[in-house]
Amino acid sequence: MTARTAPVQTFPGKGLGNITLGASLHNVLTRVKSHPQTYPAIDLAYSSSDPLRKPVVLHLPSNGLRLRFDGPDQRLRLIEVLDFSKVDLVYKNQDVLKSGKSAEPTTSPQGPSFRHVYNRLFGPSYPGEYVPPADQSPFGTYVLSYPGIAFSFPLQHSAWSEHCDFVALLSSSAALSATSMAIFQGSSWPETRAKLFTQQPQYPRSSAVVSKARDSFADEIEEFHILGAGKLEVTRRTSAPLQINLGETTPQDLIAEFGPPDAIYRKNDRRISIHRAAGGDPLHLSPSPGRGMDIPDTDHSSNNSVTDDSDEEISPSSVSDPASLPSECFFNYFHHGFDAFISHPTTPGPAFPTSGLADPSPQPSTSQLTVTKIILHGNVPGSYPFNRHRRSRWAIHLDQSGNGLTSESPYDEISSQLRGVWKGAYGNADEERAMQRPMVLNRGWGDSPENSVEFLGGWEETTSKGPRAGGDSHDGGLGNTELFGFPGLLFEVLKNGAVSCLTVY
């Protein structure tokens, strides 16, 4: 979309070219990064202290575009054209900016005039919204809205009057050409503005799905509901909810519902297994008999496509023959936001004591491969694995009322509630403190495979005391996170308290 490229179609209420409202941040950013000649510069802005609840902004300065995504779901809510000289826009075979514009770049590029917008492009409109200048500037801004699209025109503040005919006013010398254009979902900008980041997007997370038959793509996942006892319910955009039972759901079940995985990796790395020691080791991981507090492998083998001694890539086409799968491997669903660990059945984690569910029964010995872990990726801006997966949203249902924790909850809140739920599972206070000490996980050393696990300092009791580090803290570029375990759940947490990854086992 750089200047002088092929014209880009404008679709009010839908998108700009192949960038569609409702698309996920992962989808858009992956598309943009795959065309470096078209998009030579990419700027991403987000809140370092609250990246999951405040908007994320993707700025493409060489293309004159700014894209705004909501924080919790990371879906595109607003497309803005800030520099009309850097992108050739077309609406129904009409140039949005009249031909004859100078080929030389200007310091303040002009957009289409009101007359061109009103007479040639979109026609009559209801009166718009005037925004007075915030400083001593002689110009305010008049926002002219149509369904799904709006233009901002500088207007001399001295000329503004609520009783003026806005058509005559914007056609006069008191108004300048448009300085920006916005594409959004809604009937007008004033009506949409208050619910811009909260209303349900009309279009799916993948731009490719918009123009193709629904049957050719697996339905997209909206949210994972973690019920405990190895049970997860998956809500989807159009299909009925689906239940995944750890130790029972097969790889073929996943493929039937979610399509073939984007990648498959053999699991060989067992460096974390040293922390499963029992007996006299003070770091034993079973606080009480039968509660299933064993900490699972955290090598998700999905953070890149590099093969090494730890992980071996397998062709996704091999899943058509279950016998060709190794005894342990990962199904990587990057576009769905999760990975599934495929192995021989194991007993899942216990039920939440407040849920009313029964603990799972031990799984019988069988050669049938099943899903034994689900890894849900947060795609948190600023985290080491950012943009490897699209964001996966989840909710933990601790009781039958439906109240619980969500993927946007700060870890301090999650920890507080889970400590209360599991308080009776610990033998004594010392055992409880030992189990809640975080393990430090490094994903950022350049000489380590990106999908491997590196531990720094083992269990660090001091980091669990007092509030977590704020957004301004850093780890020297190592990409360190902390692992916190509860029965059936393993949280990977960033310095700002955001949950980067949740493993359900």
Automatic annotation (TrEMBL):
PANTHER family: PHAGOSOME ASSEMBLY FACTOR 1, UPF0183 PROTEIN. Residues 276-322 are annotated as: Disordered. Pfam families: PHAF1 (PF03676). GO terms for biological process: Golgi to plasma membrane protein transport. Transmembrane segments: none annotated. GO terms for cellular component: trans-Golgi network. Belongs to the PHAF1 family. This is Isoleucyl-tRNA synthetase.
